[in-house]
Write a structure and sequence with these properties.
A five-stranded parallel sheet has the order 2-1-6-5-7, with helices on both faces. Helix 3 runs parallel beside helix 5. 24% of the residues are buried. 39% of the residues lie in helices and 16% in strands. By secondary structure, the protein is of the alpha/beta class. It is built from ten helices and nine strands. The structure holds S-adenosyl-L-homocysteine. S-adenosyl-L-homocysteine binds next to strand 5. One of its GO terms (molecular function) is tRNA (guanine(37)-N1)-methyltransferase activity. Pfam families: tRNA_m1G_MT. Keywords: Cytoplasm, Methyltransferase, S-adenosyl-L-methionine, Transferase, tRNA processing.
Length: 248
């Protein structure tokens, strides 16, 4: 999959893209991430990319011409999906990451200042994506978050093919707890079942803890999750255990 990130701060993206999983995925040719500096498409002597808002007010607005020129400089066929990172966009979720992972190409526009001239939206943007209900100084972190979450879902990017499938949200639930050595630390031990070698029991424990965490931390996710009769049984047990600890 090919990602194009359009930004005024390509240098803010490079270190993260080179590190660890994303770096390896690019070396292996599983993904390609191209950074385009929007400033390279400014047309005046001063390479201006922002200007004061019509109507007055605080802050600057990213100009339409350099952004559209940057978009038009990208290979055009077949036309890639163009997304804008914006706090007003559709909240980014694992389900959206999975949908984007099915594309061959994705173009991501990072805003800065007060945001972009509205006409870029009208002319080119297919979708706006938000990282959450907060405002950052630029779209670079959100864009990297999208590239990261989407890349993890591309076959081969993660070492174990199954690791992404077990992640939180992939089946609508939060993930179970993890432990690694040592077996005891400051009096805290590892649940016995995990060292039992009984794979069926381990799977059952993990599923139950996954359900327990989701019930405790994000109960609303259970409404949407795909639960089978075995899950319902585990939830019944969990509710019983909770009632024992917190009667009434
Ligand atoms: N004035 C704008 C915010 C501008 S923040 C507003 O009120 O909506 C500058 C840029 O940072 C935005 O153009 C966007 O690209 C990016 N950005 C900030 N917060 C974001 C978020 N939560 N999700 C995605 N992008 C965000």
């Amino acid at each position: 999959m090919i990602f194009d990130i359009l930004t005024l701060l390509p240098e803010a993206c490079t270190a993260y893209l080179k590190a660890s999983i994303l770096g390896r995925a690019q070396k292996a040719g599983l993904i390609e991430v191209r950074l385009t500096n929007i400033r390279d498409f400014a047309f005046d002597r001063h390479r201006t990319v922002d200007d004061a808002p019509y109507g007055g007010g605080n802050g600057m607005v990213m100009k339409v011409e350099p952004l559209v020129a940057a978009l038009e400089s990208l290979p055009g066929q077949p036309r890639p999906r163009i997304v804008l990172m914006a706090p007003q966009g559709q909240p980014f979720t694992q389900a959206l990451a999975a949908e984007l992972a099915g594309l061959d190409r994705l173009v991501i526009i990072c805003g800065r200042y007060e945001g972009i001239d509205e006409r870029v939206r009208q002319l080119a943007v297919d979708q706006e994506i938000s990282l959450g209900d907060f405002v950052l100084s630029g779209g670079e972190l959100p864009a990297l978050a999208v590239v990261d979450a989407v890349s993890r879902l591309i076959p081969g990017v993660l070492g174990g093919e199954c690791s992404a499938a077990a992640d939180s949200f992939s089946d609508g639930l939060l993930e179970h707890p993890h432990y690694t050595r040592p077996p005891e630390f400051r009096g805290l031990t590892v649940p016995e079942v995990l060292t039992s070698g009984n794979h069926a029991a381990i799977e059952r424990w993990r599923r139950k803890e996954s359900l327990r965490r989701t019930l405790r931390k994000r109960p609303e996710l259970l409404q949407q999750a795909c639960l089978d009769p075995e899950d319902e049984k585990l939830l019944f047990e969990i509710r019983g255990e909770i009632a024992e600890i917190e009667p009434g």
